[in-house]
Recover the amino acids of this structure.
């Protein structure tokens, strides 16, 4: 090994890891920082990395790529893991890993390192991505090598080496932020019976304190991708930022779940995902009037598989490439607008329309007799009931 590129955030884990890598391997360490919309002082992170001993710092803005090529395809799939998690962290890992590999190549590194723990999903996500994109690079996972038992040991190491960290013993939970969400794990949250501590949430308004008047927003889609809010065309970054601000103001997107990690453990996670929550509702609404019934039902199964592959770290796997192409094929007609009502943490669809929709008001109306005559419906029911009449279950 000649040089290591470290996926660096400036948090407790990676700050200690940077110093530990230099101390343990005796080679230069390049601190790589990906801007995924975490809304942090990146200049300060740059300076901190140098102060902690980084030989170089590479900062890459991947926000547009992240939202356009990862978040919006997941939105098109309606990908939700275990019914609640919108995959904010999981979606960011492949784009970060891809940029990390690019930075490693550009700076002459023959190894990469990450700060994921030996118990979580991120170690799998990072390393599977590197395996697919740069199998020649060595991967170093300090949490699987060093003798530190937990984050309290890291705090002691940081104090001993004069490393400033944003975690204190009274607020030890781990926080991960990007343009999609903020996640909270660890500390008091490891007890699934305990509610999140007061003041923990950084982004969304407490629904009880949200405005007493509801807000309405129109979300427009073209071929399954959101393109405008209230009729104003926006770039992917602009659109998600505006959706985030609106959702956060009205307390939308808080989730508290116990999820099944790919590694086999159950983990309690608390998330804030304001913008993507309302975009997901809007997308489903537009799909409801534009997708063929059988395509829609088939796509529900694909959504579960899509979420599972993202969560488990297989973004660059061949089956994921096939699945993304299939999902994209379902979206050619998903063009239209959904109107949402936001009120004290809730999102309600109150309208949907499409210039190419499959909804036919005249055909479905109780006031008309077009396309389907009553006699046709009777014959349809008789045919459907044929097999049931042949295997009757007498009652009484």
């Amino acid at each position: 090994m000649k040089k290591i590129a470290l996926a660096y955030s400036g948090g407790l884990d990676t700050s200690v890891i940077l110093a530990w890598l230099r101390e343990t391997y005796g080679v230069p360490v390049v601190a790589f920082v990906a801007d995924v919309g975490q809304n942090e002082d990146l200049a300060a992170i740059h300076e901190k990395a140098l102060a902690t001993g980084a030989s170089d710092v590479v900062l890459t803005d991947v926000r547009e790529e992240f939202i356009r090529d990862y978040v919006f395809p997941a939105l098109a799939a309606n990908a939700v893991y275990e019914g609640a998690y919108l995959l904010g962290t999981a979606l960011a890992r492949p784009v970060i890993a891809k940029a990390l590999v690019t930075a490693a190549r550009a700076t002459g590194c023959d190894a990469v390192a990450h700060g994921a723990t030996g118990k979580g999903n991120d170690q799998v996500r990072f390393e599977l991505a590197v395996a697919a994109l740069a199998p020649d690079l060595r991967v170093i996972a300090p949490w699987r090598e060093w003798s530190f038992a937990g984050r309290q040991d890291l705090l002691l190491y940081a104090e001993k080496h004069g490393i400033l960290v944003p975690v204190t013993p009274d607020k030890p939970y781990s926080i991960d932020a990007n343009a999609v969400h903020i996640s909270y794990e660890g500390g008091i949250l490891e007890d699934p019976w305990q509610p999140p501590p007061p003041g923990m949430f950084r982004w969304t308004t407490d629904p009880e304190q949200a405005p007493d008047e509801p807000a309405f927003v129109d979300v427009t889609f073209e071929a399954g991708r959101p393109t405008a809010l209230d009729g104003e065309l926006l770039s992917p970054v602009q659109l998600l930022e505006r959706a985030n601000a609106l959702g956060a103001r009205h307390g939308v997107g808080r989730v508290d779940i116990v999820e099944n990690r790919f590694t086999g453990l159950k983990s309690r996670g608390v998330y804030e995902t304001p913008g993507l929550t309302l975009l997901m509702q809007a997308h489903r609404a537009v799909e409801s009037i534009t997708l063929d019934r059988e395509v829609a039902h088939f796509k529900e199964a694909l959504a579960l598989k899509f979420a599972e592959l993202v969560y488990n770290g297989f973004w660059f796997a061949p089956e994921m490439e096939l699945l993304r192409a299939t999902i994209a094929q379902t979206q050619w007609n998903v063009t239209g607008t959904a109107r949402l009502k936001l009120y004290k943490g809730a999102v309600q669809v109150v309208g949907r329309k499409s210039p190419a929709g499959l909804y036919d008001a005249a055909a479905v109306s109780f006031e008309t007799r077009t396309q389907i005559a009553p006699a046709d419906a009777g014959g349809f029911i008789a045919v459907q009931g044929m097999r049931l009449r042949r295997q009757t279950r007498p009652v009484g």
